[in-house]
Design brief:
By secondary structure, the protein is of the alpha+beta class. Helix content is 34%, strand content 21%.
Amino acid sequence: MQEPFRNKKNRGYRLRPASGRDRLDSRVRRLCSRLGILAVVVAAAIVIRSLYNIQIIHGAEYRQYAAQQQLLDTTIKATRGEIYDASGITLASTSVVWTIWADPSYSSILYTSKTNDDDTVTKTLDPAMCAEVSRELTLRLLSGDGESLDSVDTSSAEYQQQYQTVYDALSRLDSAYVTLATKVNNAVKLSIEKYVTSFNKAHKKATDTSRKGRISVSSEKSFQRNYPYGAFAAAVLGFTDADGIGTYGLEKSYQSTLAGVDGRTITQRNAVGNAIADANATTFAAKDGSNLVLSLDVNVQEIAERYLNEAIAANTVENRGCAIVMDVKTGAILAMASKPDFDPNDPLNFTANEAYLNELVHAEPELYGIYKKDADGNYITDEQGNKILDEEADYSGYYRDILWKNKTITELYYPGSVFKVITSAMGIDSGVATMNTTFTCSGAYGVAKETYHCAGRKAHGLLNMAEALRKSCNIYYIQLGQRVGSQQFYNYFDAFGFTARTGVDLPSETNFMQYYRADQLGEVQLASSSFGQAMAITPLQMCTAIAATVNGGYLVTPHVVDKITDANGNVIQEIGANVRRQVISQSASEVIRQMMEYEVGNGTGGGKNAYVSGYRIGGKSGTSEQLNMHRRADGDYKKVASFVAVLPANDPEILVYVMLDDPNNARTDYSSILAAPVAGNIISEVAPYLGIATDGEDRSGTIVTVPNLVGTEWSNAQVQLNIQGLKHQLQESQSSQSAAPVTYQYPHAGSKVPYGTTIYLYTDTYEGSHTEVPDVTGKSPDFARQMLSAAGLNCVVEGSGTVQAQSAEPGSSVQRGTIITLTCG
């Protein structure tokens, strides 16, 4: 190994010292080597630090990013709970519907393409093909079932509008998502899918008559809230918005209960974002919303709404009306109506009531007025300095707001003489007065600088409390209020719940209270408050307070929801009576019941128009002045007519309340004539339906003379029948029956009929209708009576046992309302 070296040395090779340049190059090389090592170390440190940041510090965040890229998280919508009435009838439900959408940019059959020099693509619509596809889609969308295409009227405005919508959407060739229709049922959706599949298969290859291409039309599942009865209990039920979120009424106040909890499905997805079949997909099931079972009864609600609507039309009620039927012991609301209202299936549409609303907003400019302004935003005034209404203003927002309001809880009003029941309870319970306490009414009474009068400036003379309530004497109650005193008056006012919300399970109950505290109740304020003309309250506050005066003195919380159930009908929560406090004593409550019954009497008192023969009814009317509103054209104040009834008066079960805000009846302002009949008519149908106890008097042998009702507005005609113990049935008419007079009745006026006979009333005929007599022989009297009643016939039973003979031959045609005599043995 060393030999070569020796050889080189022997040949004259020698080692020489390295030059300075060589030594510099060596140092540079060493420096570069060290710098390289350092660079590697730094780079490694940076990489390690980055990995530490990614995996340790931000590991969870980046793992989440990765999961989001790799996984598809799909929401499973929970089905919204349903709303039922007390008997299980569906008032609000949810159905699956579909949104039909298209991707015009991917629908190559709709256009021709041309690549430009700059590599851009120009798409040109094929009008003929777009028209063909639009026509086929429109026919299916309007068919209702996806099959009855021939039944679609292609000349109708509906067809033209839907066709144009589809055509315009498909013409947007650069769009990847356009909506063709919403809320489409499953049958139509399947029909469209079948058509698209067939179309694309037929155009998979070019033919002599058609180009190769496709259409891209798809569907998205969604839910639609349905209200099968339309504008029925609308202010109570409310509605949902386009996203299915409760916006008003029970839909809003029970949003979380009804909505449920959405579920999720997590699975892998491919590069374009579509789900991959994955056996390991994770699914979190949706929890459907719970159902509401209401205390509301559809039959009671229908009766209340029918008579309220009639009263509004007959009396030209300017600012809507409301009605409540409530269980006085539990606070359960059996009916609650504000009319006119809206259809929750289409809550934005006010056209059905536009004329009424337009008149309302212009009649009450202090509430709804939109006034003209100049270019600088200043109000334009007339010669007297009054602001000028803008006739061209957009009132649509006001219109919807008015219709959506639940008048029973959102608006304050002066209760008027109905409040005298409360003042009576104050006086009796506090011990400063009894039912026999007397004051003198001389027709006028001075308090400070104010002079008060009774209605019609009557002088009632010496009155006890029961007489004062029956004659609605303002002056008596001013003196009673003075005896109660400001502090005690306020204490009771507060205890009866007038200074706070009732707590009803509905949204939007007003929190604005208008009342005088004890230190604000001066002589005049106390005097006006004592007969209900100084402190403003809501109708529901009035109802809960009246209920407390007659149910033994207990203030209960009103409620609309009776219980909450799951999807299987299992009760999750039951809502019973909630007694907030006892306001007056049992004995004081007993006295109030007696006085209220005396007010109605047996059809003889001030509230006689609310009387229904056979029932013990207590009540009180109230005609109040709207002091906060502009006066009417005749210079008098606008009025509110209200009436509250309780029955049975000896042990009340239900309360019936009616309020008409600003009636314009040319004959009268008195609520005893305007509102009391409405309450009486509601009672005449609701009391038998609910099985309310009668007065126990046997009237089976009583014969009644039928009054002449022809020419009388039908609801007022029914009031006369209520008082005399005759039932009534208004026959349906093809024309409007609002405020319609009776044109024919059967049995006829002057007929002698048994107590309880049904009188059939007509508003559009002078002959009446006929019905076929059923064969009731061999039946029990009760069953025979039911069969005849169902056929529209009255009957008289003679003898006992089964029916042996009937006065009209089975199968014969007789006047509806004819009295059939049944012979039993």
